[in-house]
Amino acid sequence: MTTWPQWLPIREDLQSLSPYGAPQIENVIHLNTNENPYSLPPEVAQAILHRVTEVVSSLNRYPDRDAVRLRTSLAEYVNSLSGTQFSSVNIWAANGSNEVLQTLLLACGGESSQALGFTPSYSVHPLIARITRTPWSEGFRGDSFELDVIDAIDQVRRKLPKIIFITTPNNPSGTVTKFADIEALAKVALENGALLVVDEAYQEFSEEPSAVRLLEKYPNIVITRTMSKAFAFAGARVGYLVARPEVINAMLIARLPYHLSTLTQAVAEVAIEHRELLQAEVRALVSERNRVAIELEKSGLTVLPSGANFLLFTGFSSTSEQLWRKFLDAGVLIRDVGLKGYLRVTIGTSEENDRFLSVLHQVK
Ligand SMILES: Cc1ncc(COP(=O)(O)O)c(C=O)c1O
Predict the structure, then answer these.
(1) Would the N or C end of the chain have less CB density within 10 A of its end CB?
(2) 96 within ligand 1 shell (Cβ under 6 A)
(3) Where do the domains of the chain lie?
(4) Distance between alpha carbon 60 and the CA centroid of its chain, in Å?
(5) Confidence (pTM)
(6) Architecture, CATH, for domain 44-276
(7) H-helix or E-strand containing 129?
(8) Model confidence pLDDT, tens digit, residues 218-265
(9) Considering the domain 20-38+281-363, what is its CATH architecture?
């Protein structure tokens, strides 16, 4: 634990925390943070460079504070996938969906609120709750980490949270919650005056329809998305949410002025224009995911059904930490997500996946 100097008035409730983050190690194969392994196609890289040269002379000015052009492009993208009719008033964008989530909790969380998430799930949700002083209530998934909606509704009715988090496909399990089950939760949330936050960071890798279509019927849903995964754009830091305009107005209150730089807005717009090229590998990643899952099963391991770009597996004889270390020693960095007996692997290029599988056969 860090020892803090007396002259630093750091909040008492943060003093015992360590900074969040997966290890960043050089010269290994990175299969630990669910990134897209494909770098930008040269055509998109060129278009981005061109756009940067256009905006660079305006960097003496603050950016468009409300990123209206980018939000309009994101609305068109969501509409093209889901047949919806959103416009910029339904979209909020920030530096990654983590910032989107934090701004949402700054606006809607706090000491008098309460958030509930169903674990195991994305560990940043309770962390953001803590940072924003939002009391966190831990809900549970079933043994196979699937969300049993009847049980989930029961947990909501007992705990009466103001904000409910669902991650689908779920990280770290990859399991998908059915559209109908999200709707059932949205209904109960509405009856209880709660907001349902659906974290769809991995939506493009899944066959289940997005919850954005529920917004017409349920004003209390917020869907968060990211360009970090399917768009292969993690380094640019762009995330967004889709919601009713009232939620966007709340985000405008809580956000920092000029939070999204001119460069970020410009490059994200170009990326969305070139989405077909950028997302060309999504199908390849899905078929690689299925191939790796079969290979893991063939070697006697159990793999959770995944709708994302990663797999959670179990059934090995050493501890998670020991096996994780053996992979690292062989130059493959995967993720120990803190679940006893499980490890998570991100799907890489087919060569990287082959390397992962061949190391697995040596070390398991
Ligand atoms: C479920 C989930 N939500 C949100 C994020 C954050 O993504 P971003 O890069 O947009 O901040 C991640 C990143 O891994 C994630 O797994």
Answers:
(1) N
(2) yes
(3) 20-38+281-363, 44-276
(4) 33
(5) 0.97
(6) 3-Layer(aba) Sandwich (3.40)
(7) helix 124-131
(8) 999 999 999 999 999 999 999 999 999 999 999 999 999 999 999 999
(9) Alpha-Beta Complex (3.90)
